[in-house]
Structures are given as structure tokens and as C-alpha cells.
Design goal:
340 residues; 2 domains; single chain; Dehydroquinate synthase-like, alpha domain; alpha/beta; 13 helices; Rossmann fold
Length: 340
Amino acid sequence: MTLRFDSPGHGYDISVGRGLLAEASRLFDLNRKVLVVTDEGVPEEYSRKVLDQCAAGSLLVIPQGEGAKSFATLETILSELLRLGFTRSDAIVAVGGGVTGDVAGFAAACYQRGIDYYNVPTTLLSQVDSSVGGKTAVNFMGVKNIVGAFHHPSGVLVDPDVLDTLSPRLFAEGMAEVIKMAATLDAALFERIEAASDLEASLPEIIYNALKIKLDVVSRDPSEKGLRAVLNFGHTIGHAIEALGAAGRQFLHGEAVAAGMMYTSEGPARPRIEALLHRFCLPTSDDYSAGDLMRLAVSDKKRHGSLTRLVLCDEIGSYRFCDFTDAMLLTLIQKRKDEK
């Protein structure tokens, strides 16, 4: 299955299918210098399978986890590109989760003002979310994704077989992003997940349909000026939850988004979202104070002047934007706290 993303001046294919990792050289232009960037948590067989298909490939392994999404890692990648004599006609292949894709993509955006990069996401979260759309970034001063660039990949390879080595917790984290997109934009997909008795058999189609949602939104708003903000459902307060739990790794990104969705879901949608999150053992609440959540939520990059724009979901398959003053946002957060 192949999806095509086209925007002014750039287009690329997203290939989805079991066993595609062995076909990277058919899907990507690897007949040049290629730096395969992976992280310590990715099974070595995945990066090696891509590396073996490169005409002149090198491998760089970066640390695992959100802490690697930093200027230090960016410098490591850029230093390796320079050491190996990469030119603007060469490329990076990111093999890993969202952190690897984001920082490797940002390095590709920065090096010589932009070189090609390909994405091979190895977590469900990155397969349905961060691997497409062109958003690359690092964290800075405790703020997530605050420094980055729009730099689209030249191709994306999504192989559901690599998820066989994923832990149940990381798989559930990815499902949080699928639920997020289905809740706001695709009632039929949401209902399919609710009714699925064999999720494993349905997984390639679920991934494919989640990607269709994201590509449709991104193609209509490539620079995140309006509609694309719908993909932030659960993220503004979710990012605050994630940041507050960072020291003890209490919440993974998707887990924090799951809890964040419960702050901004209302009406008939709310119990259905909560039930589906519970099915995947995802959190629907947190123990942080309203004040602490508020402090980080208002530093979110989606803030506009004195207002914070949230995505609210009242009915499955629909959404609405609402701009909150600080007082309104604090009231919302405290209201949800009081309901638990």
C-alpha cells in the first residue's frame, strides 16, 4: 500500500506493508553516501538490514530516549556528516522512533542548508505520526520541540513487522495517537478499533488509514497555519504532563497525550474515548497539580499571544477549536481534576 504526499515543490511516497524493510533500496535512493542513524533501543537487525542495501553506507547509533532529542545529539550527527565528507547530494536514513526521526531530520534540514533524508519508523507512534508531515525538532530549556524546521523526508517506509519486537507499553503509546486522530477526524476508524477482535490482523490497514488522516490534514496545511492544529488534540496539556513526569519517565509521549485528551473531550465522545484508552491500558488521569500543569501548558508553542488554542472533541469524528485565556484554561484543568 502506498500513499503519496504532495506539496508545492516537494512530494514523496509513504509505503506501508509487511516485509518492506528488505526492500529499502527499491523504495529509497541509496546509491550514494548514506548515514543510517538509529538509537540504542532499536534492534540492530533493522538498521543493519538498511545499511546492507546502501552503496556507501555508514552507521551512527545515538542514545535512546527523549533526552537524545537535544543539541548535543544534533551536533553528533552533524559532526559525523562533516567527518564523512557528505555533500548536498547525499542522504540520511533515520531508523527508529520519533526521537531518532526528529533529530536526524533536523540534522538533514541544517546540514548544508538541507540534504535528503528518509524515515524508517520502528515504533507504532512514529509510524502513524512523526514519520510524516515534515516537522523536525529538538527540545530546548525543558520545552518540547521548541527549536526545529519543516523539512519533509524524501520517502517513508512503514513495515508493521518491526512492531513484533515492540513492548506492549510502547505499542499502546502508538495507539493513543491513532485514537487521537480517529476521535477527531474519522468516526469509521474509531468504530473499527472499538469493534476489532483481532487488532494484529487489522494493524496494516489501521496504520494506513491513520496515515491517510494525517496526510490529508498536512497536505491542506503544510506549514501548520490553521487546520493542522487539529492534530494537537490532547497535546497541549499532554505535553505538560509529559514534562512534569520526565525525571522519572512516568509518562511516555503517547501516554501523556492520552491523559491530555481527557481534559479536552466532552459530551458523548468523552466516555467512548475513555473506554478505548482503558482497553489499551493507557492513562486517563494524572496526579499533577492544576498550577503545575498550567505553568507548562502556557509555555506550549501553540500559544497565540495571551491565548492558548485547544482542540475540543464533543462527538466522535468531529472537533472544534477554542481559544482559552489563562483564567479559562486554569478553570478547565481544575474542573477535570475535580471530576476524578
